[in-house]
Amino acid sequence: MGRLFAVSDVHGYGLLLERLLARAGYDPRADRLYLLGDYVNKGPDSAGTLELAHRLCGDGAVALQGNNERKWLHGTVPDGWETERYRRWIANMPLWAEHGRFLFVHAGLRPGVPLREQTPEDLTEIREPFFQGPALPGRIVVFGHTSTSRFGIPPDAVWVGAGKLGIDTGAGHGHYLIN
Predict the structure, then answer these.
(1) Which of 12, 21, 105, 142 counts the most CB atoms within 10 A of its CB?
(2) Rounded distance, CA 165 to CA 116, Å?
């Protein structure tokens, strides 16, 4: 097994994701990639970013639903899209993934609720109750959804908390996917 990668909140900036993976020397035959949601909205190319995520999944990556994909499932997809194809793919995305001691989610977990009893809204929209809640024993929760600048650190930095890693470095707010 090679390296473990996690990327969140690309928000229509698929070109930045491609650059990041190239710069990191990502090799889908050896490395493992988790995409933590919010591929769409805010940026210039939501369709292209979804297509890139789909292609990466074809090479072994795991793509999770984010709150923006859930909005599309329950709302309107922009005109000119292959609506049913995207809806089916997004609807079948998992809400979390596990790799060893790492638990990947879009937004976080509701404290005190077992993983299998978390609601989709908890996993894709939660903020403060998760940040302020206790760590999961023996686990590291890797999440996006909340730009790390909201934690009072530079927007291109990763937030580190007790048993938690916040990796939304602000592409949807004009920042970067990595520093």
Answers:
(1) 105
(2) 21
- pTM metric for this prediction: 0.93
Over residues 16-72, the pLDDT tens digits come to 999 999 999 999 999 999 999 999 888 888 889 999 999 999 999 999 999 999 988
> How many residues are present in the chain?
179
In 19-146, which ranges are E strands? 32-35, 62-63, 96-99, 102-105, 140-143
Give, in order, the Cα–Cα distances in Å from 40 to each of 18, 133, 164, 179: 15, 29, 24, 21
d(CA 109, CA 121): 10
Buried b / exposed e along 130-150 (16+ C-beta atoms within 10 A): bbebeebeebbbbbbbbbbbe
